[in-house]
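Example record

The entry below shows one chain as it appears in the dataset: sequence first, then structure tokens.
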Amino acid sequence: MSDDQLKGLRAEIDHLDCEVIRLLGQRFSATEAVGRIKATQNLQAVDEQREAAQAQKYAELARQFGVPDEVVQKLFRVVIDEVVRNHRAIRDGAKSA
């Protein structure tokens, strides 16, 4: 592999990393809105049925795109745990407001 090929692939990886982070930002914005709705409707921060359904979707998408399911599940576990933490913080802030 030439240096130019390596540089090109690394540039592609950097671009993809940027897109992943941009999309995570959009996802967190959307889930923050969900958290506000949950807080106003006094709903639980965790929706176990939705999480189970999403885990199935993630497994299907992992297969579709050739990504190990374990990697996808771990990634989304981190994301979902952060979302739940944020939903609880929104709820607790709404209670003290």
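Notes for this example: The mean pLDDT is 95. The radius of gyration is 18 Å.
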